[in-house]
Amino acid sequence: MYYLPTSLIFIGYFILTLIYILKNRKIKVENHLFANELLIAFLFLLAGVSFPFIYRFHSPNLSQSSLNYLWLFTSLFLSIEMAVWVFTLIYNTVISKRNPEIMAQRDYRNFYEEFNKNWVDDLKSELGRKFLHLFTCFVIFFFWTLGTVLNSLGILANWGLDNYSFSYWLIITVGFGFVIMFQVADLARLNRFYMLPNWAKRWYQDMKQSELHTFVASTPLVLSFVPFIFAPFPILASVALITTGADAVACLIGKKYGKHSLKTNSKKTVEGFIAGGFATFIIVFSISTFYHPWLSVSFEKIILMGLIATLLFLLVDAFTKNISDNILNPILTGFGMWIIYLL
Fold first, then answer.
1. 202-245: pLDDT as tens digits
2. Angle between helices 64-98 and 163-191 (to 10 degrees)
3. How many of the other CB atoms lie within 10 Å of CB of 342?
4. Kind and range of the H or E element at 29?
5. Which residues, in sequence order, are bridge partners of residue 269?
6. Which of 57, 202, 271, 299 places its Cα 20 to 30 Å from the Cα of 230?
7. Cα–Cα distance, 11 to 257 (Å, whole number)
8. DSSP 203
């Protein structure tokens, strides 16, 4: 039962997020945010329900004692993080309510008015925002590489682990810790801004204007990777790099060289659209080829996986309106590749 604290934390986030959405249902529907936020809530539920099965799925021979240690360390780390956040929020609530000046300073309306005044939508600002998303990929590839090296040296075998169980333990623990950190801050920001410490408010200085009254994109982006932990690693790696890398390429090429609008009243350009699709195919082909021992499919199937992922990426980019592409891109491209792999 060592997995229970982590599962309960994420199921708790599902409940809190759902309560917030339903409480503000009218304004969410009016601003076309309801479906997107509802998906985010259910991604939390998916993470909580699937966590007990994650570490053993690719490692069926993992001993119960080794599995218990993995669950224990993850749950202990996330529980400590939650405890620190609860104390921080309570502390800031107390000092804000005791001091009217501090409460006035921590009015969210003041924050977003100042934010809108200083908002700059240029290439440099976009690079900063995309860097945080790309860091997610770095974590996945770094921990997988570390697990591969330790496995080849025979170190993991001495611990009763293998590459999948060890690498995914690190990826999940860090990824879930990141999600917990941002979602607790987001719920505080959107409900009781005065609960946030000043250092946490600085996180939101680089968010998009469209995120001012909803959750930041980083949280659903990471949660959308959860289903693909059950897929072979190259599919998870491709999904992560498409969602962050291909999206970044499309956005940056569009901002730098885009001259032809993709649609009426849209900031997306044909140049960025083409660059994103090309980047998607290259990512799937490169990852599937480089990590072929963990995929074991024919060259023709790799090409087909790349084409399907590219088509789905372009469809999301062209037609998505009210659902974040940080949710649809990983889910659609990932399941598209996975289905082709299983055929």
1. 888 778 888 889 999 889 999 999 999 999 999 999 999 998 88
2. 20
3. 7
4. helix 25-30
5. 261
6. 299
7. 44
8. G
Burial class (CB in 10 A: 0-12, 13-18, 19+), 95: middle
pLDDT-derived band at 122 (thresholds 50, 70, 90) equals low
Burial, 300: exposed, middle or buried (Cβ in 10 Å; 0-12, 13-18, 19+)? exposed
Main-chain phi, psi angles of 157, to 5 degrees? -60, -35
DSSP string across 93-115:
HHHHHH-HHHHHHT-HHHHHHHH
Q: What is the CA radius of gyration of the chain?
A: 21
Token duo for residue 251: 């956005």
The reported pTM is 0.92
What DSSP character marks residue 246?
I
* Residue for token pair 């009210």: 322
Q: Which amino acid is at 121?
A: D
Question: How many residues does this entry show for the chain?
Answer: 343
Q: How far is CA 173 from CA 78, 122, 178, 194, 306, in A?
A: 8, 34, 9, 29, 29
The pLDDT tens digits of the residues spanning 139-191 come to 999 999 999 999 999 999 999 999 999 999 999 999 999 999 999 999 999 99
Rounded-to-10 torsion of CA 52, 58, 60, 61: -120
3-state secondary structure of 321: coil
CA distance 304 to 301: 5
